[in-house]
């Protein structure tokens, strides 16, 4: 038992509370400090018996969340009060009515948006997705709900080390799947970067530590380089009378990791490891001219890359971000990204949505910065109103709205429309009006006739062509990327689909009755998974339309029967993490709460997932599927993010047992310079030295460059790494990487 010094803790709580008040002071009016004190006392009292997983008093959490709201997002007193009280309703006897009585309607409304839905959910539905949908319902009334939720998530991620491994994976993945893109969309770039870095820290710790180490190793030479790079710029800008600040900062760990992964290059080949930012302190009327003047100074000293100029001053991003980005060649032959912006632009880039309040009395700036976000909130509202599908379907559509870069296109009259990259003429038609979208047969882009699925580019001028005979089809959903267009197409199709869905439902009900199976949400969810349809309604629709023949439903009963006869702890009993833990404890005793891969095969039905082919030594988790028992995935699996984010309750702890050596299939990609006998040397290393069986080898040689893929059987990640090290010694081989197939 850990000894706790309660007096020390009390002092620490007061110290954190005073820090919060000190930082909030410039934002407070008349009685604000009193209300904050009252909220702190209520929260402190309500949570006094509670501790976090780390053993710290629970009150540290609401205090830290309030601190993030003030210090890193720039929110005011209402948000501080809501942040201090955000867990009170969920964790104690306090009701929303009590909050409203003591702190007013606004605070109650925000806390309601932050309080999770409890209760029983349909089998197979996602509580995580339902809670997220509920939170977004309050977004259109008050954006502070989401901002406080992001602050809450940031604090949870900062204190993730005290959580068990499978919970770390679930929380980190949900953060990456939703909260980092959301922070990006609201312009909170600093928080977005920290969330991404923390995600990497907990899901791929080795890579994270490796990059951090490398950044630290190169710090001295990097600082020296930045100093010599900015020296002539500082001199010239001072001479021209600018009031400015220049800072050089390394890119985030995650963005470096992303670059290494996307371009398949080692750390040493990531050239733009840092960016130089020039912030000009200037009057708002002169901002644009001054930024371009600074750009001209930079390009007098360093040659710019013409393809890498981004002008977000003339046309800001839709989340209000304004800045001028250019990439220039330094005197040492290194590319450097330079960002040029005013002090106001920097505030908005650092603090996003909340910083707009600071400037909102200046009409022009506020309009320019907030219209994009208001448009986006309107889109979210439309999506929520039109979506009567499953919460997971809604989440997919919503996410499509978050992370896109943008293209700027014009109407025939010259009005600017900001669309996500990849948007088509059909997206543009729905952007103008639902009716125009529904009747769209094509478009003229820059006076040329194009089809509805033509992708738009920056600067395109688009005129939509319509016909009264046209109507939306199922195929249209694959030809749009905006959630607005998707929602409107689904609305139109839903009307037509209704009767087929009802027919299908009746057929399924009748068929299940004949087979003496219950017609309930659990059976329907199992049928949906068995026939590989996304939603129950899609399954009914396909049955109603005859795409799935009613006779094939009998196959499901046979499949179910076969599963039952196996007699293992699967299918009927294990539905989520808690039922798995209960079952494994029944079978193996009270000290067992995880699946041992390689040992529990006779007790539990599990398979290795085909999407990522895990091998012993890989970091893995177990996932309870609806029909196929438990699947073991690598934490780096391409499907992991979605599974962990939407169905965290079905994630179970799993680890490899070192008892037996089984052969697992792995893939290697080899690149090198071609020479006679190279293949022979490679196969020798594989077969002779390490007694590895190869399943296949494909080789392609072009102009002296050799590329090959090998699939082979190994026992573990150590075995694979040893093999890769030995192959790297073969003369002519430049690079070896593992790949998923």
From TrEMBL:
One of its GO terms (cellular component) is plasma membrane. It comes from the Bacteria. Pfam families: ACT_4, HD_4, RelA_AH_RIS, RelA_SpoT, TGS. PROSITE patterns: TGS (PS51880). Residues 405-466 form the TGS domain. Gene3D superfamilies: 3.10.20.30, 3.30.70.260, Beta Polymerase, domain 2, Hypothetical protein af1432. One of its GO terms (biological process) is guanosine tetraphosphate metabolic process. In eubacteria ppGpp (guanosine 3'-diphosphate 5'-diphosphate) is a mediator of the stringent response that coordinates a variety of cellular activities in response to changes in nutritional abundance. Belongs to the relA/spoT family. PANTHER family: GTP PYROPHOSPHOKINASE, GUANOSINE-3',5'-BIS DIPHOSPHATE 3'-PYROPHOSPHOHYDROLASE. This is (P)ppGpp synthetase, RelA/SpoT family.
